[in-house]
Every structure is written in C-alpha cells, then in structure tokens.
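Please decode residue identities from the backbone states below.
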C-alpha cells in the first residue's frame, strides 16, 4: 500500500491514516516523524492533548470522563491502539473521546501516538488549569515514564496552585534528556532539588524556594531566570565577588527578581570598569527569547574584569538583578541581529545609581 508524506499533512491527517490499516500505521511509524510541540492540559473533568508537526499547528484530542455513557447514548465506539473509547464526530483538527477513566484513556492515547510518531519531541508543555490534585500529579508522573517524554530537552510545567514536591522531584528524576525547564509551579518554600539548578536553561516563577545558598553554592546553569525570590541585594553582591574570584566558565546570563530594594548597595570589592567599545559590543542577546527577540542594551552598565580575562556586566532594576558574561565579546558580528533588535537606552529603566556616583566621587 503506497503512502506519501505531504508537507501540508497535519498530525490529525496522519492519525486518521494510521487508523485505516496496520500497513499504513507501520509505514507512518517508519518515517520517524518529529513532534515539534506536545501540549497536555488538565482541567476539572477532561484532558486536552495537542500535537504539532510544525510550530503551533496543533491537532487535538479531548478525553472526557465517560462514566455512565454507553453505546445507547448515540456515541460510537472507537479503539485506538489497545484502548477503547466512545467518540463523537471527528473534526478536522480535534477529536472528542470519552473513557471511564480519563487519565487511563489519555495514557493509552499517548502510547499510540508515540508509536506512530517515533521521532523526537522538540518541546513539551504541561498545563494544569484547575486545582492540582493527587490524580493529576500521578498522571503527569506516568506521562514522564513514557520514553519520548523522558528524552525531551525542552519542558514547561505550569500549575494553577501549589504543586506537589514529590511530583516535581519524580519528574526531574525521570526527565533524563531535560536541558531547558520553564517551571511555572508554585512550590513550598522548603522545596529543594539540586538537579533543577544544574540544567542548561532554567526559568522559574514563582521561586520563593530559591535561597542565598542556592545562588552561592548550588547554581550551575548556563542561562538562569529566577523570579519572585526572597533574596536581598547582599546575596547578589556576594555572588559577584565570588564569580570574579573563581574560574567558572559555564554561566552566560543570570536574572533574578526579588521582593526588596537596593538601599545601601555598594560596589566595593568589585573589579569594575566602564564600557570600552573596543573590548565588547554595546548589546547582549536575549538567550531566553527567540532569535528575533530584542537584545539587552549594555552601553552604560557596570563591567567586571576577571583575572583570567573573562568579562561580565551587571545592571540593576528596581526589583531585579541582571548579570551577563561575555564569552563572545562581539555577538553582534557573530549573530547579526536586525537593527530593530538593538534596543535604545531610552527604553530602559535602571535602579537609582546615586550610591555608585557617591562612591566614584570618593
């Protein structure tokens, strides 16, 4: 049986083809088709699973609790892999399914989908749009037992309420391929997991659990964005003093927001220097955004020169600390951003620099 993969075929098109015969299913499986985006959303009484071949061009499956439904309700029966569902009419990009246990049904569906699309999952997002529960937590852990999810390098976790520490720890243990984590899960203040601080790229919001000890001794990532911490400016000063005395070459960018202010901040002990256009560029790329994102203007920020020659810059905003390391002193020539990406200084708001000016006068 002949089958040609066309560029405009959606995930749902391929799913429907796979349901036609075993031969077609095996043919599609042999193509090792990548999933550009996997999105799993948990709500009060249904789970929404969405997959895309191309960014944001999703096909979706809604798995509802079907307790009490049967064939007599005018809903036909469909078998997907080893799992039986009741379903209504299939739309072009979405299929409604009912199962007596939506979590069990969703896992069965995912196993079938991953058996069709055997390539890599490039990005996976998990959103809990209702109050987190033990059943939802266990379902998410079960999903991370599936090999394609374990191997995914880019993961986003979002929960609308206090998350289970045990769930997040289990997910981090299972996610063997994880390199970038966007952790939008409120966690208890006493939560701690060393793996999360060693990822290449980490975005965490809120992060009341992030401590001065984490910053000083446990943090070992490349790009780190931590928000809503209880840190004080003294922690950032200590971090910079430590950085200029070590040989750390891993960190590229660190951004931390905190519930405090910069009153009393001093730069004594830091090897500061003014920007020299011959030594580095005026702008630094946003390593958290897309290639088309605006760059950071670093014309009038503080530079820190380390003895091994590595150069860093830092700046302060009202409730945040920003620190970048110039592994490439001239990223504009390397990455060639458009002129519109090089943000002008007028669009920036910095913390009050009066303390530094007083110090310079001394």
């Amino acid at each position: 049986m002949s089958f040609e993969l066309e560029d405009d075929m959606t995930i749902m098109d391929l799913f429907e083809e796979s349901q036609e015969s075993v031969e077609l299913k095996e043919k599609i499986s042999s193509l090792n088709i990548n999933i550009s985006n996997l999105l799993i959303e948990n709500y009060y009484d249904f789970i929404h699973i969405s997959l895309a071949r191309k960014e944001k061009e999703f096909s979706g499956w809604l798995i509802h609790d079907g307790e009490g439904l049967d064939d007599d309700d005018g809903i036909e029966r469909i078998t997907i892999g080893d799992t039986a569902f009741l379903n209504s009419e299939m739309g072009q990009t979405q299929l409604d399914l009912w199962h007596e246990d939506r979590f069990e049904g969703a896992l069965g569906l995912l196993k079938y989908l991953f058996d069709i699309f055997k390539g890599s999952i490039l990005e996976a997002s998990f959103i809990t749009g209702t109050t987190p529960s033990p059943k939802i937590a266990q379902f998410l852990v079960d999903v991370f037992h599936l090999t394609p999810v374990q191997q995914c390098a880019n993961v986003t976790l979002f929960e609308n309420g206090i998350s289970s520490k045990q769930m997040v720890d289990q997910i981090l243990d299972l996610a063997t391929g994880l390199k970038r984590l966007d952790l939008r899960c409120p966690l208890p203040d006493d939560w701690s997991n060393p793996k999360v601080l060693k990822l290449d790229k980490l975005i965490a919001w809120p992060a009341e659990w992030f401590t001065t000890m984490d910053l000083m001794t446990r943090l070992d990532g490349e790009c780190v964005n931590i928000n809503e911490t209880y840190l004080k400016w003294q922690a950032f000063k200590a971090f910079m003093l430590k950085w200029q005395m070590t040989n750390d070459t891993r960190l590229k960018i660190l951004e931390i927001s905190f519930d405090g202010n910069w009153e009393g901040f001093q730069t004594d002990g830091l090897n500061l220097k003014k920007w020299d256009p011959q030594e580095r560029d005026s702008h630094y790329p946003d390593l958290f955004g897309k290639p088309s994102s605006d760059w950071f203007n670093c014309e009038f920020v503080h530079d820190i020169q380390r003895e091994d020659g590595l150069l860093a810059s830092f700046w302060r905003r009202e409730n945040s600390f920003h620190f970048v390391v110039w592994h490439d002193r001239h990223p504009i020539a390397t990455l060639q951003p458009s002129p519109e990406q090089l943000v002008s200084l007028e669009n920036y708001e910095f913390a009050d620099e009066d303390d530094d000016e007083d110090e310079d006068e001394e």
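Observation: The first strand starts at residue 37 and ends at 42.
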